[in-house]
Amino acid sequence: MKEAAQSRIRVQVAVQTPAHSGIAEPLTYMAPHPLPAGALVRVPLGQREVLGVVWGEAAQAPEGATLRDVTAVLEGLPPLSAGWRDLVAFAARYYQRAIGEVALAGLPPQLRELGAEQLARRLARKAKTSPTVAEGDVPRAPTPEQAAVLAELRAGDAGAFLLHGSTGSGKTEVYLQTVAELLAADPEAQALVMVPEINLTPQLEARFVARFAPVYGAGAVVSMHSGLTNPQRLGSWLAAHLGRARIVLGTRMAIFASLPKLALIVVDEEHDPSYKQQEGARYSARDLAVWRGRREGARVLLGSATPSLESWWGSRPPSDGDAGGRYRRLAMPSRVGAGALPTVRLVDMNLQPPRTRLSAGLMDAIAQRVARGEQSMLLLNRRGYAPVLACSACEWKSECPHCSAYRVFHKIDRSLRCHHCGFAERVPRACPTCGNLDIAPVGRGTERLEEELAELLAGVRRPEAQGRGPVRIARIDADSTRLEGALSRQLAQVHDGAVDVLVGTQMIAKGHDFRRVTLVAAINPDGALFSSDFRAPERLFSLLMQSGGRAGRDSAWLAAQGSRAEMWIQTFHPQHPLFAALRRHDYAAFAEQQLEERRAASLPPFAFQALLRADARTQEAAQAFLTAASAAVDDLPEAAAVQRYPAVPLAIQRVANVERAQMLVESESRMALQRLLAHWHPRLHALRRSPEGQGIIRWLVDVDPQSI
Ligand code: ADP
Ligand code: ZN
Ligand code: ZN
Q: Of 66, 262, 295, 477, which has fewest CB within 10 angstroms of its CB?
């Protein structure tokens, strides 16, 4: 007995410690026998027993500590691989979080609750087979551009590639065939395919299942996203971890999937901001994909019609005195089937009658399309009826009492809703300040656009072939899709041709392969032209290009209709260079111009940024904390190479009665920035506990922030 006690060994275990504890490293426990790194265990933490991941043997016990015992080992599960642990450790270090937090967030929640016995039962259960796929999906003969890209992917060594392919150039087919080749070449190989929002792309999932289930069985394709139930997530995770799943489709969270035989990572629409996590560890799944690919010797394929400027710069070809980017650039400039990209028409709103919201030319174009049985899509990036309600007699506006923002008027349920804190009330009958009955909506959102369209198109009829009824208008935005399954129902209606005019926010601009849309219109995109965020033009360009990409995707049908694909843009700034590049579908020219500006201003990708943010009851307290934080690293050698800007309020400075401030930190050296952040972390924890930290509700670091 005594000998057994002496042979006990110390192990390090990554557990989820509370964020405010400031503990970044795994904790030390005692185990009765050596445990392999990556093994899943249950250990005591405070009063609780929690799930942990063995991180390695501990050389030394912390001084004077009495170590507690590992309670149980989850048998039957192979340990998490060294590659996975390296990914977690890298993400934790790079994004300034605790290893345990990142590790545990990367595991399915249900794993935390299962005892050893329950898990054994779960493992024994036969993998549930999804409904058999009636129709397989056979590979298409690649177009010449697809063939060239596939050949390069095949020939090239592992590494990262940027596939710059026009909307409708057939990127999905390239993903499918690349996956197919890798899986065929190695009976164990696994592929990870990430999309920005899996809810928006049920089509993609269906295509992967249709293509691969007939070959590898129904369990070969699993998905991972926040729409799954906990048991489903566990099921997908186990399938991937045990190597049963050959393909994992998922949103950004899937980057942490355990894939022991990972051979390929595809990041579709790699420019999409939703690859950046906006809470907890604020990681970029796209950037981690590149890191993980390199670590695992797997190919990484980033795809987009409008790559992020970081990736575009990162894939520049070598030139004199420049070794070029780290990624290899692949191009598919043409649409499949000789389809043309839509003609871009700019409507100069300065030339329209005053207060015109929908120009006559645009309305005519839509009416003609309805009459021919074609679909149109109108984009307005603002939901609700009107962004503000205002009194005509006094200064009253529908401000949120808890935020520095207006509450949005929703006519459907006659409510005023704050889109930041959720505070909602019924619309008052009279002005709360002066009693005036005339309070009116100012500006306009998708609800109002839908209403105006219905009036303007009231006389228009669908063609005989479609029953000659009145025009059918649908709206898709975060409000219309609140109910479970609503979005897929609404999208199915569009695909089935049950909708003539679709109104929506950017939700409808991404990825959908609508076959009958021949006109896309951006109603009021000007706001982004003059935003203070340096990424706003990039975002706008990509949004417009993506939305335009929804028009005229079926060239044969388009020709049979005798129609043309058009993208309409209503703007007060038709001379803006962004629109000139858009008209020519010239992403490269736009990117070059933007990169020049970024270089001149030392902005990403020519510099690296992080934000330090503090939330407090008062703006002064929040800013004082940041200022003190800045002073706390003055003595570091890296401080000279890292610029720290003054603390400023966030654009929306108060949300739910919390004042928010931020400080931008910037360096031309990623290494210097990382070193500074690493030293900063413990000092920030200490500062939080000092008098300056007393008024602080929370603080956080956002590395490579996507909006500033
Ligand atoms: P992207 O993702 O680049 O916008 P998709 O992959 O959705 O484009 O392809 C556009 C359309 O072209 C789809 O309907 C797809 O089925 C079709 N397509 C793709 N590749 C081929 C091919 N080689 N032959 C015939 N049709 C193709
Ligand atoms: Zn009033
Ligand atoms: Zn609010």
A: 66
pLDDT at 1: 41
Å from CA of 285 to ligand 3 middle: 30
Question: What residues does ligand 1 touch, defined as CB less than 6 Å away?
Answer: 140-143, 146, 165, 167-173, 336, 513
Residue of 173, 203, 269, 301 to test ligand 1 pocket, by largest number of atoms within 8 Å of CB = 173
pLDDT tens-digit map of 631-642 = 999 999 999 999
Query: How far is residue 686's CA from residue 683's CA, in Å, rounded to a whole number?
Result: 5
Mean pLDDT over 229-255 rounds to 95
Q: CATH: 3.40.30.10, 3.40.50.170, 3.40.50.300, 3.40.190.290. Which one for 144-332? A: 3.40.50.300
How many A from CA of 397 to the centre of ligand 2?
A: 8
At position 68, the amino acid (one-letter code) is R
Q: Name the pTM for this structure.
A: 0.93
**Smallest Cα–Cα separation from 295: which of 85, 98, 37?**
85
On the question of pLDDT at 473 being above 90, the answer is yes
The answer, yes or no, to whether residue 190 has pLDDT greater than 80, is yes
322 bridge partner residues: 319
Instruction: State the Cα–Cα distance between residues 53 and 37, nearest whole angstrom.
Output: 8
For domain 339-383+446-599, give the CATH superfamily: P-loop containing nucleotide triphosphate hydrolases (3.40.50.300)
Per CATH, the number for 2-124 is: 3.40.1440.60
Nearest residue (by CA) to ligand 1, atom 25, is: 140
pLDDT digits (tens, 9 = 90+) for 255-307: 999 999 999 999 999 999 999 999 999 999 999 999 999 999 999 999 999 99
Q: Largest alpha-carbon pair distance within the chain?
A: 93
Taking the CA atoms of 501, 507, 508 and 509 in sequence, report the sign of the dihedral they define. Answer: positive
